[in-house]
């Protein structure tokens, strides 16, 4: 039976989205800029969607990176639309900011007396891009505490909520294995000082937790990995920290603390926290001092340890203006780093982060793949058309990052209960331009013994079990499959930067990837029936180098990556 991980929760309810839209728009107009990621040479069109009560004639802007005066630009009404959610008319207003011919952060307000600490919208003018190396990345996601302890397997405990001993040395000692998979980027779960086994509640942003190692271990990992052509990305948590963090303790116990405004306290001294978890107080990143502290912490590990970037936890939590400053500040100093966000939201909402980070984890694709390959919920034509449309929707303005499972979801194999489905879903994943992630253990058939959502509770520990290093507990054939898949993707750029074109074959998944003189046909049979396929040409199977001329039999739950030889 198909298990829905319910990754989007209330976001799939129209009423929730409608109420959120109304609430946001009543506070501040919805602002869109064209182009979405402007350069110093661009004229910038600023479009406002406003309620009838939001009557503006002028916008005010300044360049944050300079001591410039506030500039004024007039607003013109361009259109009036009817909105069913508001059951009212909305105004579409427009303003033009001329080319500035210099880089910087633009901060816009709608009232010259507005507090720039609160009521403003920002974007950066720059020429930053995702580093070229990121396009070729194959990411291996390691949950450090459960991966390996020095050179040994982490022992399973009855208490899965405690630290089990995995450490940085365990990652170092398995670099040869990771390299053999064709991996060129490692994403580590948080390694900063924390009492929890997962590390998402940070006590000190500038220290490594002793349970996971020390700074020398991290330096060795970065250096040893880089010698193998592997980059290290850390998991960074800007939205919240541990209640044991000395900064929060000072703010909690002293109303006159200089850190008091770094958090959102109420009159009774209660405070905002991550999903109401009081051990994880939320950082007020509208406060510029708190913002600077977090950005400086991120820079510290890049500058001193050669970290290649960050996976940004719960990126929808911080104020959107924080991400403008984070991205501009770090990319200005470290342009070759890569920063991608965990944004569990609609694609429409995700687009707000264009120009504010290099990439995003594509949770919509995660849902789409599971529903199609396991749940059989989508018609083939509709499924492939959605894949095509999403590229047009994002317009290559932000890197999309794909995954079949992670530390917050049931493992794909647990839900599918069929290795063949995992393999064909992986073929599909590795044939897209999206940067693919393998969650540690996925490649060896690691599984779980209970449903993570059992009893309507998210019991994440079941998908964070120790990795089995005893080969008798590994699916060696599956490991070899992933090695081949990574090698094929690396050797054929059409797979990671080719144009996506719908294929000619009915009743199965088929699409072309085309780049320069490479034309690759991907065909996947996600049915229980054998299919006789007519191929118009000569093709080579990149898994086994077998040549096919015109005819091909594809078995149930089987997939091929075929190089066209005669086009």
TrEMBL record:
InterPro entries, per the entry: GH (IPR017853), GH13_cat_dom (IPR006047)
Boundaries of every Glycosyl hydrolase family 13 catalytic domain copy: 141-489
Domain of life: Bacteria
A Pfam family it matches: Alpha-amylase
GO biological process: carbohydrate metabolic process
Protein's name according to its UniProt entry: Glycosyl hydrolase family 13 catalytic domain-containing protein
């Amino acid at each position: 039976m198909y298990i829905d991980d319910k990754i989007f929760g209330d976001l799939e309810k129209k009423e929730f989205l409608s109420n959120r839209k109304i609430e946001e728009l009543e506070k501040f107009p919805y602002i869109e800029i064209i182009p979405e990621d402007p350069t110093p040479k661009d004229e910038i069109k600023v479009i406002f969607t406003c309620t009838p009560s939001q009557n503006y004639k002028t916008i005010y802007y300044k360049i944050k990176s300079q001591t410039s005066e506030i500039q004024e630009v007039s607003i013109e009404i361009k259109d009036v639309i009817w909105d069913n959610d508001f059951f009212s008319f909305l105004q579409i207003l427009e303003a033009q900011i001329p080319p500035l011919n210099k880089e910087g952060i633009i901060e816009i307000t709608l009232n010259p007396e507005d507090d720039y600490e609160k009521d403003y919208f920002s974007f950066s003018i720059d020429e930053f891009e995702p580093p070229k190396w990121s396009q070729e990345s194959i990411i291996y996601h390691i949950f450090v505490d459960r991966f390996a302890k020095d050179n040994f397997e982490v022992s399973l405990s009855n208490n899965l909520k405690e630290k089990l001993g995995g450490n940085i040395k365990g990652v170092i000692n398995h670099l040869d294995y990771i390299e053999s998979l064709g991996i060129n980027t490692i994403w580590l779960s948080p390694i900063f000082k924390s009492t929890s086994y997962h590390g998402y509640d940070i006590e000190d942003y500038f220290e490594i937790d002793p349970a996971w190692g020390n700074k020398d271990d991290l330096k060795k990992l970065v250096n040893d990995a880089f010698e193998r052509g592997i980059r290290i990305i850390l998991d960074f948590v800007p939205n919240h920290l541990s209640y044991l963090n000395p900064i929060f303790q000072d703010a909690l116990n002293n109303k006159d603390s200089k850190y008091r405004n770094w958090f959102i306290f109420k009159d009774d001294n209660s405070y905002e926290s991550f999903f109401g978890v009081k051990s994880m107080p939320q950082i007020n990143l509208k406060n510029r001092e708190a913002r600077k502290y977090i950005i400086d912490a991120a820079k510290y590990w890049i500058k001193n340890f050669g970290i290649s970037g960050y996976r940004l936890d719960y990126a929808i939590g911080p104020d959107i203006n924080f991400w403008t400053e984070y991205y501009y500040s770090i990319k200005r100093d470290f342009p070759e780093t890569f920063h991608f966000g965990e944004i569990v939201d609609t694609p429409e909402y995700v687009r707000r982060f264009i120009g504010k980070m290099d990439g995003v984890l594509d949770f919509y694709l995660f849902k789409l793949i599971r529903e199609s390959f396991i749940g059989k919920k989508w018609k083939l034509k509709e499924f492939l058309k959605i894949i095509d449309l999403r590229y047009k929707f994002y317009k290559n303005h932000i890197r999309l990052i794909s995954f079949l499972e992670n530390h917050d979801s049931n493992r794909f194999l647990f839900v599918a209960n069929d290795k063949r489905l995992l393999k064909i879903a992986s073929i599909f994943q590795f044939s897209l331009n999206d940067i693919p992630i393998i969650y540690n253990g996925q490649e060896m058939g690691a599984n779980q013994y209970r449903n993570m959502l059992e009893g309507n509770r998210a019991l994440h520990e079941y998908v964070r079990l120790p990795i089995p290093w005893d080969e008798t507990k590994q699916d060696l054939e599956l490991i070899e499959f992933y090695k081949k898949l990574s090698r094929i993707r690396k050797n054929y750029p059409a797979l990671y930067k080719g144009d996506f074109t719908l294929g000619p074959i009915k009743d199965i998944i088929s699409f072309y990837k085309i780049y320069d003189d490479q034309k690759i046909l991907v065909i996947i049979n996600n049915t229980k029936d054998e299919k006789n396929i007519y191929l118009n040409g000569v093709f080579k199977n990149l898994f086994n180098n077998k040549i096919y001329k015109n005819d091909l039999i594809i078995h149930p739950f089987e997939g091929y990556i075929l190089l066209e030889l005669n086009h």
